[in-house]
User: What shape does this take?
Amino acid sequence: MDSRLRAVPPPLHAEREPLRPMLWTIAAFVAGALLNVDRIPLWATAVLIACAAWQLSVAAHKLPALPKPAQLILTFVLVTCVVATFHTLNGLPAGTVLLVVMGSIKLLETRGRRDRYIVIGAALFLLLAACLDRQALARLPLYLGDALLCCTALLVSAYGGAGLEIRVAAKLAARSLLLALPLALVFFLFFPRLPGGFWALPANDDAITGLGESMSPGSISQLTASYDPAFRVRFAGAIPPPQERYWRGPVLHDFDGYTWRRGVVEAYRQPALRYLGEPFRYSVTLVPDANRWWFTLDTVVGSPDKHVFFSYDYDLIAREPVTQLTTYDALSYTHTESSEPLSNFARKIESALPPNRNPRTRELAARLRERAAADPDFVRAVIDFFRTGGFQYSLTPPMLDLDSVDDFLFHTREGFCGHYASAFVALMRAGGVPARVVTGYQGGEWNPIGGYFLIRQSDAHAWAEIWIEGRGWRRVDPTAIVAPERLSRGILDILPNAVSGRTRLLYTTPLLVHLLQGWDALNTAWNERIVKFDVNMQLGILERLGVRSADWTALVAALASGLIGWLAWIAWHIGRSAGPRPADRLARAYARLCRKLARAGIARDAHEGPLDYAARIVRRRPDLAPRAQPLLARYAHLRYGPVGGEVAAAATAAFERMVLRLHVARRPRSTPLRRSKSL
Amino acid sequence: MKRFLRARIASWARRRQGADVLPVTMHYRRIYILPTRAGWGFAFLLFCMFVAGLNYSNSTALFLTFWLAGFVLVGLHRCHRNLLGIALQGATAVPTFAGGAGELELTLENPAPLMRLRIEADLPGVAPSVTDIAPRCAARLSLALPTTVRGRLLIDGLRLTTALPFGLFRAWTWVYLPLELIVYPRARGFFPLPTVAGVTPGAKTRGGSGGDEWLGLRAFRDGDSPHQVAWKAYARGAPLLVKEYCAAAAPERYFDFERLPNLDTERRLEQLAAWIVDAENRGERYALTLPGGKLALDRGAQHRHRCLSALALHGLAPARRAAAIAR
Amino acid sequence: MEPDRAALQRGLAALGTVILGKSTQVRLCLACLLARGHLLIEDVPGVGKTTLAHALAHVLGLAWQRVQFTSDLLPADVIGVSVFERTRQLFEFRKGPIFTQLLLADEINRASPRTQSALLEAMEERQVSADLTTYSLPDPFFVVATQNPHDEVGTFALPESQLDRFLMCVTLGYPDADHERELLKSGARRELLPQIAPALNSVALLRIQAAVRAVHVADALLDYTLALIARTRARADLKLGLSPRAGQGLIRASQAWAYMQNRAAVMPEDVQAVLPAVVAHRLERREGLDMRAGSALTDEILKAVPVPL
Assistant: This one.
């Protein structure tokens, strides 16, 4: 009647849902949602908070669970809300909100371990959504913290009850993440990146306005200097001198007497250029600003990208607005020459002035023109006029009337770069010299930590270009004539009141400046190395590692060897700790001693104390005893005796040395066995 | 289907591993590990994250995905290690009466300086039992084994499992120990204890409170403890009297299988079991006679177990261990 | 403290002349008393339990009393009694034999449970309460009890909770052939007792006890002791593991043993030496399992717990 165990269903436990796993699950989800909080509508946040609070009360047995039908209705209503808000369920913003909403509802019906896992999975996906949305370095700690929170929640959830100390759980999760880090790095570095996505990504249309495509100096009474970065430039090789650091942006051709516009331009042929001097190679990283301009050092040779148009006025215009960090390599010469004549069509465009506006300017131009023999003389005369006319640089000029150039030249005589460029070009055109306004940036702050130039919005500038027959387009910066210090020194030095007190403090305290530069360099490194990491950089790393002509097979090989190496390491590292392991130096030295003695054929039993062991050695291997016994006694004293502090440390070190020096023979030295007489 | 698969794998593992001898240390070769359902779900989640990261060419998202993948693999090793090195030091089946729940008591030892989380022992058809084991400590696990009939219950398919730390993998090991549970017959019957066959009318010994049989009152003598004085009587005006008790001598019982002729075998065994339990509770000495043998007059837990085991195994063939293993 | 150690050695030597061939047991007994613990000597009659107890009392130079326990012994016979004074119409407490420095409780398992528990309570608290008054027992105060485990008729085995109050339970066992021959030759050992000069006195004993308590116990040793205790708790075949009180006792006894070995600190070997005596009587196997001797059990436990490195 040998009976086996029958299959009996396990007893049903009407167990209370433990509070702690629920708490951590909720925390992980809410944290994940909060990472996206600025992108989800207020009502979704409210839903999230309400659901989390409700579920907390349920877990604490304060409130009943929401009935199923109510949950279904809620789901329907909320999904409808998402559709109403975004008109789609696709794409990152709508998807994120949908995830938050659905996760909140799932939270309401979370009962067992399985439900908790689903919610934690949703929390991880919310973390992913946050990563997809923004990759700023400053947010990295938040992401790390959330990852740790989710992993800890996973552990707490798997454990169930309350027996696990939170400190222990968090430590375990953190250590696991740390151990996983090498693998993540290997995969990050060597997993072949596909250029471009699998499907089209919806464009981001929320834009911030930067440098505009028109300029009306007369309408601005106060220019606030923004210290936000515009772009960063890293030179490979030579760096142009300060007076050549003009970053070319939109060129304005069309003037209506008050406003300069780029105009609906009938483009003319770009006059061929001859490049003089040495080229400058550099890469530019644009901060997204929703404009289509790719700024370059004046004058760029060509377009670095087939999607970017190289215009007739030497501008780079992208097909799509810049909505994410964009880096491109470019080649520029600061000196050019053009011997071919300007076409009549072009000459007409670049000399056009509105007929009935700014009469005094025209008059002045005619007067100066009469005196000048040729174009260069006229230009010099105008420059002299600016130098001696009592003009003043100001960021808070008075408003100008509709004949803005007249008003500026003969009345206010106070303004910033826009005013001077505008007036100068108007004078040129009135004098029959083709001229145009170029906007862009000038200067830039050298970041010694990162080794690059940071060009801020406050470096925005406008200057003039004039056509000299036989020599081509020449740059004239009237602002530099009026206020030469504007070019060599920052805006803060010249007009300290142009910026807010806080900004002034930030950018004038040397230590803070240094810190800010460091932070900016770090951000730049992050953006250039990590965020913009692509297949070319991957191959570059391989080549630096010594792989010649690296291609994707080399990448896969690197990946595989990294993976195998990591797996072996992790197996060894983790498996090692499962066995009993000597805890401290003394224990390790003692273990070594025991191993040596064991090799001599007299192994210590696990339950044998050092003195018993010594006694046994004396009995069994008297030849070893003189050397082994003092060591064992010393160990016993160090381990169990009243020693402590530095004495113990020194004595332990001495003991270690003695153990290292101990040499024992495998066999007892040939002591002939003495036969007892009775045998 | 799942149960069938599990049984097949278990029998394969048994052929591979062979029978175990205590103590059983969980080394690499005997630990199996597979993802749990949550583990598969997590893999799917990672795949989705990976596709999203790749599609957006988003370094941070990709890094997060790779990191979590590494985390899962670390979890795999940690789960494996959670079981690795644990030694099953003892496995004891505590007998019970048929219909009751026997107990399989397991002693697990953790020789390593790390905490073992949620080590679970289970048998097919038995509610699992879970414990944590602190570093360099041991822990006990006890499994309740439901029983129906008396006899010998072979305990087969003992499994130690763990899904910790992250619940994404489940590591387990089978332990093939020759374990059996003695199931005593149900202790029931309506016959009173048989009249004492050879009572030795024990000399009644006077004692302070050794027994609880009331003997009477006697006059107070110098040296008597005040605790024994009958104060109530004194209060009523009687002279000082002292209460006296005595311990009753224990009778002896002889239980004989043959003397229960009107019952079938199982009923007789149940009746005998009931008597044994009863006699033991009363602190009496008893002897048991079965057709196959005899157990002499004695008392105590040990004697009780011998008697009840004899009843449990009465008429059963000796354990066919080899056959059980082959199955 | 050297004179004390010397005196202790003299005492041990003297005990050795009385109890032949049982030096380990004798040392254990002495260690038990040095650790301020009560001692239970358990064995069959005629191996010298009572002689050992007497010899201990002699050698330690303590005032001692002997009580032969029988089933009709009342608590009052040990503790003392409030006697009714007819003339004054009130009770007066007369101290019992327990008011001494060393109490020999012979055949303790013959007394009724009530008497036993009265004695054991007094042992634990080192004081006696009677009629709302508390009487302190002298210091030092020891109980050396003997019992015969194989006596079954008319005895009341001490329950575990009571046994826990004895720091050690020492089993003497039969002497080996050589010593037995000598025993037979020389006649009753108890006659030698009056010839033994007390090696110690109560003041010296208190001093030694203080010194014993000062013997260093390292953290590593505590770890080892804890592992031993945990082991007993984890074993499936034991009804109960060791109590914290047993753990304290184990440490104290180990300290005394280390002191007697002229050591300044307790070694694992000391714990191992006293463990069987301290632990065996406190462990009980579960019902329905094979009973094995306590010593085999402690041996298993010692073998199973590695000494930490």
DSSP finds seven helices and 18 strands in chain B.
